[in-house]
Specification:
Layout (H helix, E strand, L loop, with lengths): L13 H21 L2 H7 L4 H7 L3 H25 L4 H18 L1 H12 L3 H12 L4 H15 L7 H17 L1 H7 L1 H5 L1 H19 L7
């Protein structure tokens, strides 16, 4: 049975995974207040009594959905980010991993936006824990920026501001997808190809923007 704290992905049962997937989409569509436990049980193909056996309340399930999503986010990056030898490789791996995760998990964007608009208290709590983890992707990219500055391969910038800019660039066009499809015909014609092009553009813009500037 799931507890109130996060746990390794391998420790979740198949039933719990099915519940989380169903709950993620229900919360993303209806929000925390509008989501119904019966709808989640139906989508997970279990009865409501079993759902309450795993999660006593909708609030507890909502909290666990965030913990589960954070764990999946961390695991999705795999060895590509952790084994990157240079800042250039780290930046590319971070952008590719972040954008690919959001592309494959669109409901996560709606969930995060909805939570932020409602005050973001729970999200802030989980993000605070997530950010303190040694292997958390945002912490890795921030640390690599600091190292690159010390080595002279990145010009002096505020590492946390740089990380926020990178994350925002990876996320914004998903949040604003309907507007982006109007603004950029390529996005309207072939969204998957546009997403791949965005990865390259974001990397080029950030990498060269952080490059050391000569005295002239």
């Amino acid at each position: 049975m799931a507890s109130g704290s996060s746990q390794p992905l391998d420790d979740y049962s198949d039933t719990e995974r099915a519940i989380f997937d169903a709950a993620l989409h229900e919360f993303a569509r209806k929000g925390r207040d509008g989501a119904r436990m019966q709808a989640i049980a139906d989508a997970a193909d279990i009865n409501k009594s079993m759902l309450h056996y795993y999660f006593r309340s909708k609030e507890q399930l909502y909290e666990q959905v965030f913990a589960y999503t954070m764990q999946r986010f961390m695991q999705s990056f795999g060895a590509s980010l952790h084994e990157a030898a240079t800042f250039k490789e780290t930046l590319r791996a971070f952008i590719d991993g972040y954008v690919s995760f959001i592309q494959d998990n669109r409901a996560v964007v709606k969930l995060m936006v909805g939570e932020n608009l409602s005050g973001g208290t729970l999200l802030a709590e989980h993000m605070g824990q997530f950010r303190s983890m040694e292997g958390a992707p945002p912490r890795i990219i921030t640390n690599r920026i600091e190292t690159a500055i010390a080595e002279g391969t990145v010009r002096p910038v505020a590492p946390e501001h740089a990380t926020l800019t990178i994350v925002s660039s990876c996320l914004f066009f998903f949040v604003m997808e309907p507007t982006v499809r109007v603004f950029a015909p390529a996005a309207h014609d072939d969204w998957p190809a546009f997403v791949e092009a965005r990865k390259t553009h974001i990397f080029d813009l950030i990498y060269h923007g952080l490059a050391p500037r000569d005295a002239s």
